[in-house]
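User: Some background: our group keeps a shared notebook of sequences we're curious about, and every so often someone picks one and asks for a predicted structure to add to the entry. Today it's my turn. The entry only has the sequence so far, pasted here. Could you supply the structure so I can complete it?
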Amino acid sequence: MDKPRHHWVVRLTHWISAVALTVMVGSGLRIFNAYPAFARKGETFCCYPFEGQSIPAMLTFGGWLAGARQWHFAMMWVLVANGLVYLGFIYLHGDWRDVVPRRGFVRNAVEMIKFYLFVRKRHPRQGKYNALQRATYFSLPLIGILAVLSGFAIWKPVQLAPLTDLMGGYVWARYWHFVAMSLIVALSVIHVFMVFATDPYSMRSMITGGYNENNSPEARNARPFYNLLPNRMRRIRDADDTAATETDSDVAGAESVKVPRSLGDSPGDNQR
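Assistant: Of course. Here's the predicted structure to add to the notebook entry:
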């Protein structure tokens, strides 16, 4: 039976962010192609090896430069407003406790990594979100703040000169904006892939709000990429996990049995 998992405000802001980020990334890459470098002409930049190379047009959005700028600025306000609504809601509603890393975070993260690397047999039980998810969902708003501030710095470098200076100047403000965008894209791609790879049932919960705990990766002991495997390989892995669990249970049961010191031992014998 499904239990409430995601409030409608969380679901709505999630999908608005997905659309706004997609448009902003595509339009931002089109704007970047107008000058696909960070250094001034005749100079070199230390930290970007693809100076002068344009982003493929198929990855951009907005058509021409002016159109891309209009889309970018329009979605900027949508994303900022949406982010403020989300952060305000999870603070007032108490959902922030689900995403903020807590005590034992490093240990739990290591256990999840071991599971994903096939070193650990059983899926760690870490609540609504595991340690790696917490790290991702906690860092995304912080990266988003960097993206917004650096974006304002390159949009109004004169009017917001103190902010631009804080970023290290106009060139570095563009670079930090690009880095923030790259991190958001990377984390988003990993997030979507892992949803389909380990917990596809959570996709429905982000639409309906309900989630059946019996379908969780912990309950199914779903291996990494389990849902991407052919049915035959799933059955083989399920059989291996069942055999390993039964073996562990047999060993634990055998250790719990007390073996007498000898066949003739008895309380009366010990008193003689």
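Suggested note for the entry: The beta strands are 3-4, 210-211. The chain is about 60% helix and 0% strand.
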